[in-house]
Design a protein that fits this description.
The complex is a heterodimer of chains A (642) and B (211). Helix content of chain A is 26%, strand content 25%. In chain A, helix 7 packs across helix 14. Among the domains of chain B are: 58 residues; 88 residues, no CATH class. Classes of the chains: A alpha+beta (642), B mainly alpha (211).
């Protein structure tokens, strides 16, 4: 508005600076030393959002997080403020962009182009575009600090690592914050960064390390579905206790641009107060809104090819964009039954070369509702066909697009998640865990048709087992909830409001060879030794002094490493001789090398393992020497490329 | 010893050498005085001009004097009406946005006579969709009057003639009653991108070369 009054009513003697913006106007009143903000960063697969709230001026009832407008290049030479920073990085050719056309308010020539400009330039030059860096962090079998992205780039392009891309997005957010709040350095604020609940310990560690690399050593982690629930609690202004009751199991379904994340949170009672406990998290499913848009584009492409029109790759991309808009129009407007789609030619002649087709309501509901959310039975499981041997280095995208089948598998697998909670009683005949309430998150579920279908499918499973229907927790802001909830978590950590308990979402095991006579032709049997139990709280540690290993100084030793999302009863030191594939997931190997400091190379040192969950929210493994109590960190992130 | 007596009633009867010398000295002194005064005036004027250029203003007086002189010169001429000059950058920027989102320039510059209405309609969708997106993203638009069009409205005395335009049978005095023909549009918010120093806004669409 201030810009407007400057342009339109010059007679009024208000002359704001030309660079004035609403966001800056707000910050002016906060610019005093000593103010502490709670800052929540949603480091998403496709978008980053930063939300913040002033901790000094907050009462118990009034918590008003704001979403920062992030200045970013949108095309060469123009800088705009947007609430979302697209998580894309573009590696421009030195001849590609004019001098001084990439300056930002805080730097004349940034090292990497991130945000809207990266997505725009990358849509026409995909070989230089880094996307989905976050999914690579959780991808087993690649070294996340090795320059591997973009995967399809020719040798001449200097690639970057997924770790570096993540740090670059954080750096941009940091710099943007600094330019808007010069008197409140971000490294002195309470910073919470969200990660998917399904992130493994190595991916969490990498995220924390990336934050440390940009100076945010104090940042702590929070799981995204928990952040969404925090946001819902905060938005209800204390009313949430009326909407949740003892015995509730809240299912958080978070369908983002690139991933689907599932979590279960139980409502219990302690000393007359309601308590929230996160009891289970789902697998890392690479399936989201982008898959839906792509599916529609390919449907339309098939239709055009039937008419004998061949499409080039750039046309499919343009089609994907218009499918996204058309889908939203069809979902939001019940009267519209078909939306014309047009793909303009690339040359300056618009009229002759424009391709026209249309997207009908039937196609949208067939492809999206039936394709992604089919009406399945709770006993159905995601279809997985064996991967072909020669898979190019790419992300392990979900093979079955049916989100409802993934949901069925998750709820069935977690049937025993609440066995230890006395407030929650599952009927004897239940074949899956019965959620009583559902919280949605992620832009995809803004479409009512999809949200309704998801509830219908879930409720059909529940009524088949004579359970009451689950209710939808209303009032969630699907796009910005995670960042808002993260900012609220900073406030909760000050001892105000309710805190979701959880601890680790899995129990962790190392593989050790069992002592038995060797059988020719057979690999030695492996036992899984539990080193960290399920639900280990932050700030605690567990030691296994009875299980010693002899480590050779100077030689790397590797352990196979496993996680289980279902074995809640295993204690530290439990050895498993046998397990099913469903029970234990194998993660990347962990590695330890004892340094040679004041020891002879080749000497064998007996050590035992120690696991700790840090306050930050990462798992830390250590080898401890029995003799002199020396401690060495065991690294997760040594992911050898396979 | 010569003695000199002063008698003012005496009148010289002859011009001797002394008189000539005296007259010459007087003439010379007055000449020097004139030259000094002139040079003083000239140097003052120059000094004044310099201080204007440098904007250091060591003495404010000469500046004031010069302004006064100019005022005297321009005094009889009435002050011209200053019309606001629109900055070209913002206009170029808007053209660039409309071209990027809506292919606006492509559409306007194309000769449409040879094409059928159906073909033009297809292209118009591109332009309409993109313009809609660009305008919504960068401007907040509101109607000037909220009443439905073709309804009767009454304008009180002292209404803002800049926001409501009267047409047709304009006679009498306010309040005026008439039919709302067009509800009007006003921009209530502008969010134009900021431009970097090296950006040439005149290039509304760069040429594209695919390698």
């Amino acid at each position: 508005m201030s810009e407007l009054s400057d342009h339109m009513q010059p007679e009024e003697d208000v002359v704001p600076e030309s660079g004035d913006s609403p966001a800056q106007g707000v910050t002016a009143e906060y610019q005093q030393d000593g103010t502490r903000f709670s800052v929540g960063i949603d480091l998403g697969t496709t978008h980053c959002v930063l939300s913040y709230a002033d901790l000094d001026h907050v009462d118990d009832e009034e918590f008003l997080p704001q979403v920062m407008a992030i200045p970013q290049l949108t095309s060469p030479g123009s800088v705009e403020e947007k609430h979302q920073l697209p998580s894309f990085l573009y590696l421009a050719h030195e001849a590609e962009l004019a001098e001084n056309s990439t300056s930002l308010p805080w730097v004349a020539k940034p090292d990497y182009l991130v945000g809207e400009i990266a997505r725009n330039l990358g849509s026409k030059t995909p070989i230089r575009l880094v996307s989905s860096a976050k999914s690579w962090l959780c991808h087993a079998g690649v070294d996340c600090k090795a320059p591997i992205l973009p995967a399809e780039a020719p040798d001449e392009v200097k690639r970057v690592s997924p770790f570096l891309a993540t740090a670059a997005y954080l750096q941009h957010l940091c710099d943007a914050w600094q330019s808007l709040h010069p008197n409140a350095p971000l490294d002195q604020q309470d910073v919470v960064i969200t990660v998917p609940a399904s992130f493994d310990p190595a991916a969490r560690e990498l995220t924390v390390e990336a934050a440390r690399a940009v100076g945010l050593g104090q940042a702590i982690l929070l799981e995204e579905p928990q952040a969404a629930l925090y946001s819902w609690i905060e938005k209800s202004h204390g009313d949430w206790r009326k909407h949740a009751e003892v015995g509730d199991i809240i299912l958080v379904i978070d369908i983002g641009g690139g991933t689907t994340d599932l979590s279960l949170i139980a409502v219990t009672e302690k000393d007359g107060n309601l308590e929230l406990t996160r009891v289970a998290v789902g697998d890392h499913i690479l399936l989201g809104g982008d898959n839906m848009d792509l599916a529609l584009a390919y449907t339309v492409k098939a239709k055009l090819e039937k008419d004998g029109k061949r499409l080039e790759p750039w046309q499919i991309q343009a089609l994907t964009h218009s499918c996204r808009d058309a889908k939203e129009k069809i979902f939001n407007n019940s009267e519209v039954d078909n939306i014309p789609l047009v793909v303009a030619s690339r040359g300056s002649s618009l009229i002759g070369g424009t391709l026209r087709t249309e997207l009908t309501r039937d196609e949208v509901s067939r492809v999206l509702v039936e394709g992604f959310l089919p009406q399945v039975a709770v006993s159905d499981r995601p279809v997985s066909r064996p991967r072909t041997g020669l898979r190019t280095a790419g992300l392990p995208y979900a093979q079955d697009a049916a989100i409802t089948r993934h949901l069925a598998a998750f709820l069935s697998k977690q049937q025993g998640a609440t066995d230890e909670l006395k407030d929650i009683n599952l009927p004897e005949h239940a074949s899956f865990l019965h959620p009583t309430a559902v919280l949605f998150n992620g832009g995809v579920l803004k479409a009512e048709a999809l949200a309704e279908r998801l509830m219908d499918v879930l409720n059909s499973w529940l009524s088949a087992e004579q359970a009451p229907e689950a209710r939808l927790l209303a009032g969630a802001d699907l796009d910005l909830a995670v960042a808002r909830g993260a900012a609220y978590y900073g406030y909760v950590r000050k001892g105000k409001g309710v805190r979701i308990k959880g601890g680790t979402a899995a129990s962790y095991y190392v593989g050790i060879e069992s002592a038995m006579p060797a059988v020719p032709g057979m690999a030695p049997e492996i036992q899984a030794l539990c080193i960290a139990p399920f639900g280990m709280e932050e700030g605690t540690q567990q030691e296994l002094p009875d299980d010693e290993f002899g480590l050779v100084i100077g030689e790397p030793v590797r352990f196979r490493f496993f996680a289980s999302h279902t074995r809640r009863e295993d204690k530290v030191g439990t050895r498993l001789d046998y397990w099913t594939d469903e029970e234990l997931d194998e993660l990347d190997e962990i590695e330890i090398t004892l340094p040679e400091e004041d020891r002879r190379p080749g000497e064998v040192v007996p050590v035992y393992l120690c696991a700790a969950v840090t306050e930050v929210g990462t798992l830390e493994l250590q080898a401890v020497s029995q003799r002199d109590q020396g401690r060495w960190k065991i690294e997760f992130d040594v992911r050898a490329g396979q | 010893m010569n003695t000199y007596a002063i008698d003012l009633s005496l009148k010289p009867t002859t011009f001797d050498l002394w008189h000539v010398c005296l007259a010459g000295t007087v003439a010379l002194l007055s000449l020097i005085l004139i030259v000094l005064l002139l040079s003083l005036v000239i140097s003052r004027i120059r000094c004044g001009k310099k201080s204007l250029v440098q904007q250091t203003a060591p003495t404010a007086e000469p500046v004031v004097k010069i302004v006064e002189v100019e005022k005297i010169v321009h005094a009889p001429v009435p002050e011209p009406v200053v019309l606001k000059e629109a900055t070209p950058d913002a206009a170029l920027q808007l053209l660039g946005l409309l071209q990027k989102e809506a292919r606006f320039i492509d559409f306007i510059k194309e000769d449409i006579t040879a094409f059928s209405d159906a073909d033009i309609g297809v292209a118009a969708r591109v332009v309409h969709e993109g313009c809609n997106k660009a305008i919504n993203e960068h401007f907040t638009l509101a109607t000037v009057r909220n009443e439905p069009e073709r309804s009767k409205i009454t304008l009180p005395q002292g209404f803002d003639a800049a926001t409501v335009r009267l047409t047709g049978n304009i006679v009498g005095v306010a309040p005026f009653t008439g039919t709302l023909v067009h509800k009007g549009w006003q921009v209530t918010g502008i969010r134009l991108p900021k431009l970097t120093a090296g950006h040439n806004a005149a290039i509304v669409a760069p040429a594209e070369v695919e390698l």
